[in-house]
Design a protein that fits this description.
The structure is a single chain. The protein has seven helices and two strands; from the N terminus they run H-H-H-H-H-H-E-E-H. By secondary structure, it is mainly α. Strands 1-2 form a two-stranded antiparallel sheet. The longest helix has 24 residues.
Length: about 160
């Protein structure tokens, strides 16, 4: 099974994408007015605020998966569904708070990812839905997820 979001990396190393995408997010947020925070990227889709809550949540989740994969022998990824997280927290956290959480967690994830050896990146873990994957798959998913949602946010600021 292919690594989710891999197509958003265009063959680049996920650590490089993590680094470059945080700068792109920073630039994008400078264009988010009060109205744009409340604007969906398409009819019936999430607003910028909701997208930021979602990416902050999953930056944390993927970050925990990454940390467990390199430090917990026999680690098994727990599959999760985004919808219950958004139902509980989606309206409770404002966009700027979610952006701040995402930014700081991304910085921590970059520092950890950049420190990993090739052997660590090749560490195998089990995913109940995808079978055996490695730490690099988690990094690709983490980086690609951020790029995927950045593209949605870019639609809002270019309206």
């Amino acid at each position: 099974m292919p690594t989710p979001y891999a197509e958003h990396l265009d063959g680049k190393d996920p650590v490089d994408v993590l680094r470059s995408s945080i700068a792109e997010y920073h630039e994008l947020t400078s264009h988010l007015t009060k109205e744009r925070w409340a604007t969906p990227y398409a009819p019936g889709k999430w607003t910028a605020q909701q997208v930021f809550v979602h990416v902050a949540q999953w930056e944390m989740i993927f970050g925990v998966r990454l940390r467990c994969a390199v430090s917990v022998p026999g680690y098994v990824v727990q599959p999760l569904n985004q919808d219950p997280f958004m139902a509980v927290e989606g309206a409770a956290v404002d966009g700027q708070t979610a952006w701040a959480a995402f930014k700081q967690m991304r910085r921590m994830n970059i520092a950890l990812a950049a420190s990993l050896s090739e052997a660590q990146r090749a560490t195998k873990v089990q995913h109940p839905e995808r079978g055996e994957i490695d730490v690099n798959d988690i990094l690709v998913t983490l980086a690609g997820h951020g790029v995927h949602h950045f593209k949605q946010l870019r639609l809002i600021v270019t309206k």
